[in-house]
Amino acid sequence: MASSKSKRNSSESNNSGNRFVYQEFGGNTNSAAFKKAVQELPPNQQNLRVQASRKGRKGKTVTIISGFQTKPETLTELLKQLKSQCGSGGTVKEDTLEIQGDHGQKLVQVLTQMGYKAKISGG
């Protein structure tokens, strides 16, 4: 009996990964259709907010730039330029840029020179 039980358990485990209980909108056949459409605006039409934050970062200060309406590829290129201007690291998270350290004034100057409308937000 033990051998028949083990065979049944192994066959159930093979099939359990392919079963769907409920699935809305079909399968993942066309994942490009579900991606968020991004309307890319020129820099002079984007209103950016620059703020320093330490929340959830173990006391480390991070400068957050939000308000972008561009493609992710454009954000990574812009991040690379801003990191080199500040001499620090950073990352892209969703539609925001995070640069390590408190570089609010410098980033506003650099962004306005690039043609963006940038303001310092917060206190």
In short:
By secondary structure, the protein is of the alpha+beta class. The chain has helices at residues 2-16, 72-86, 104-113, and strands at 47-53, 62-66, 90-93, 96-100, 117-120. The chain has a domain at 43-120: Translation Initiation Factor Eif1.
Structure report:
There is one protein chain. By secondary structure, this protein is an alpha+beta fold. 33% of the residues lie in helices and 20% in strands. The chain has a domain of 78 residues: Translation Initiation Factor Eif1. The chain is extended.
Question: Which key phrases capture this entry?
Answer:
extended; 5 strands; 5-stranded mixed beta sheet; alpha+beta; 123 residues; Translation Initiation Factor Eif1
* Share of β-strand residues: 15-25%
Helical proportion? 25-40%
Q: Count of helices? A: 3
Mean pLDDT: 83
CATH architecture annotation of the domain at 43-120: 2-Layer Sandwich
